[in-house]
Amino acid sequence: VRRNPGEAEFHQAVREVLESLDPVVKKRPEYVEYGIIPRICEPNRQIIFKVNWQDDKGRVHTNRGFRVQFNSALGPYKGGLRFHPSVYLGIIKFLGFEQIFKNALTGMPIGGGKGGSDFDPKGKSDHEIMRFCQAFMTELSGHIGHDIDVPAGDIGVGGREIGYMFGQYKRMTGRYESGVLTGKGLTWGGSRARTEATGYGTVFFADEMLKLSNESFEGKKVVVSGSGNVAIYALEKLNQLGATVVAMSDSGGYIVDEGGIDLAQMQELKEVRRGRISEYADANSSARFVEGGQIWDVPCDIALPCATQNELSIGGARALIKNGCTLVAEGANMPSTPDAIRAFRDGGVRFAPGKAANAGGVATSALEMQQNASRDSWSFEHTEERLQDIMVGIHERCAETAEEYGRPGDYVTGANIAGFIRVADAMMALGVI
Ligand code: NDP
């Protein structure tokens, strides 16, 4: 805490991982001897830069850009870029730290990193977004590359922003280096199923949890928070598996539609018009909008928090438990607070942490890198099948590791230990560097 003052989210993420590692360190004292824990908690490199850009009226704005290259023992740094006014070093470091273990869990050759800016894309015109993305990439371009660091999207960064950044990188370097960013459009090097991957992957993971007790999503009532990339494609897969999504949200509040939220309308509202979720209730008499409040008050069998960090606190956890929710799988990064996770554990709610349940996005980004490297383009079905296999594999790895370390059913412990061991062993093999 003294070494990284004021970085509350980073402290929270580190504490959560370290708390799980006691049994590993006891079993493998060489990790201590080689200083693996302090080394893994310190980013290899943190880049902070100024981003000047002009709005449509010609006024100049100054934002701050970040890229934290955390750990590259397993491969090039890999992790998204977040554009949101709440972004500061502590947020980027928490996300980068989580990313190390998540990427390790996928079994693919990718290290951990994260970046972003405190730029607020809300209410900006297309031209303003483009000028910001170009200014951001002008500063970032010298630090990335297909075998150095490969950024992708996150909150506030989707296909449009990746396009503007890729264009600027191409202009600056004079090279068509497809593998420098992932989340690209399908006609210029993107992978089919990348857009869907995080939401689909979270549902695949939860489905594996259900299968252990011979259950399925068929007929289940689900609450999904958020209405961005992850939430929308969780909704799509849930519909395909026969579940009903009764509530979704954005930062203004949540909507409830007991008959099930309509995917096509939600896509049109959020992906095309970039509107507010309250407009969904304006257009549908079966739906109601609740301003502010907490979505977790809506009764459900399963909850998928897919919006942002610390959105599900102890009050939300208690409401879910009281209403009979039996499974929570995180589509977002660290959406549940530590006391909410404890409440789930004590209340017998099955719980999957984001670093396991939402790893489908980065795994499919790694598949995009493979396609770029071989100048190939796979079908949707093939890519989705590989995504599902990867999620089944992550689920198995977490469940088996939890069992091996005497915590059966504890996916938090399983994910932290399995991810850590893979990175720690690679760090040992590479020596003290
Ligand atoms: P988007 O920007 O597409 O969507 C974010 C959604 O969350 C929006 O509906 C937004 O509402 C809502 N939201 C943001 N902040 C709050 C808040 N404080 N309270 C309530 N709602 C809020 O982002 P993504 O869907 O890509 O990301 C969502 C989460 O998933 C993040 O935690 C991200 O790190 C994680 N994730 C994303 C991956 C990906 O592939 N995209 C991969 C792995 C994890 P509003 O529009 O009002 O701000």
UniProtKB/TrEMBL annotation:
<feature type="domain" description="Glutamate/phenylalanine/leucine/valine/L-tryptophan dehydrogenase C-terminal">
    <location>
        <begin position="191"/>
        <end position="431"/>
    </location>
</feature>
<keyword id="KW-0520">NAD</keyword>
<feature type="active site" description="Proton donor">
    <location>
        <position position="114"/>
    </location>
</feature>
<dbReference type="InterPro" id="IPR014362">
    <property type="entry name" value="Glu_DH"/>
</dbReference>
<feature type="binding site">
    <location>
        <position position="153"/>
    </location>
    <ligand>
        <name>substrate</name>
    </ligand>
</feature>
<dbReference type="InterPro" id="IPR050724">
    <property type="entry name" value="Glu_Leu_Phe_Val_DH"/>
</dbReference>
<dbReference type="InterPro" id="IPR006095">
    <property type="entry name" value="Glu/Leu/Phe/Val/Trp_DH"/>
</dbReference>
<dbReference type="InterPro" id="IPR036291">
    <property type="entry name" value="NAD(P)-bd_dom_sf"/>
</dbReference>
<comment type="subunit">
    <text>Homohexamer.</text>
</comment>
<dbReference type="GO" id="GO:0005829">
    <property type="term" value="C:cytosol"/>
</dbReference>
<feature type="binding site">
    <location>
        <position position="78"/>
    </location>
    <ligand>
        <name>substrate</name>
    </ligand>
</feature>
<dbReference type="InterPro" id="IPR006096">
    <property type="entry name" value="Glu/Leu/Phe/Val/Trp_DH_C"/>
</dbReference>
<keyword id="KW-0560">Oxidoreductase</keyword>
<dbReference type="InterPro" id="IPR033922">
    <property type="entry name" value="NAD_bind_Glu_DH"/>
</dbReference>
<feature type="binding site">
    <location>
        <position position="198"/>
    </location>
    <ligand>
        <name>NAD(+)</name>
    </ligand>
</feature>
<dbReference type="InterPro" id="IPR046346">
    <property type="entry name" value="Aminoacid_DH-like_N_sf"/>
</dbReference>
<dbReference type="Pfam" id="PF02812">
    <property type="entry name" value="ELFV_dehydrog_N"/>
</dbReference>
<dbReference type="InterPro" id="IPR006097">
    <property type="entry name" value="Glu/Leu/Phe/Val/Trp_DH_dimer"/>
</dbReference>
<feature type="site" description="Important for catalysis">
    <location>
        <position position="154"/>
    </location>
</feature>
<protein>
    <recommendedName>
        <fullName>Glutamate dehydrogenase</fullName>
    </recommendedName>
</protein>
<keyword id="KW-0547">Nucleotide-binding</keyword>
<feature type="binding site">
    <location>
        <position position="365"/>
    </location>
    <ligand>
        <name>substrate</name>
    </ligand>
</feature>
<feature type="binding site">
    <location>
        <position position="229"/>
    </location>
    <ligand>
        <name>NAD(+)</name>
    </ligand>
</feature>
<feature type="binding site">
    <location>
        <position position="99"/>
    </location>
    <ligand>
        <name>substrate</name>
    </ligand>
</feature>
<dbReference type="GO" id="GO:0004354">
    <property type="term" value="F:glutamate dehydrogenase (NADP+) activity"/>
</dbReference>
<dbReference type="GO" id="GO:0000166">
    <property type="term" value="F:nucleotide binding"/>
</dbReference>
<dbReference type="GO" id="GO:0006537">
    <property type="term" value="P:glutamate biosynthetic process"/>
</dbReference>
<feature type="binding site">
    <location>
        <position position="102"/>
    </location>
    <ligand>
        <name>substrate</name>
    </ligand>
</feature>
<dbReference type="Pfam" id="PF00208">
    <property type="entry name" value="ELFV_dehydrog"/>
</dbReference>
<comment type="similarity">
    <text>Belongs to the Glu/Leu/Phe/Val dehydrogenases family.</text>
</comment>
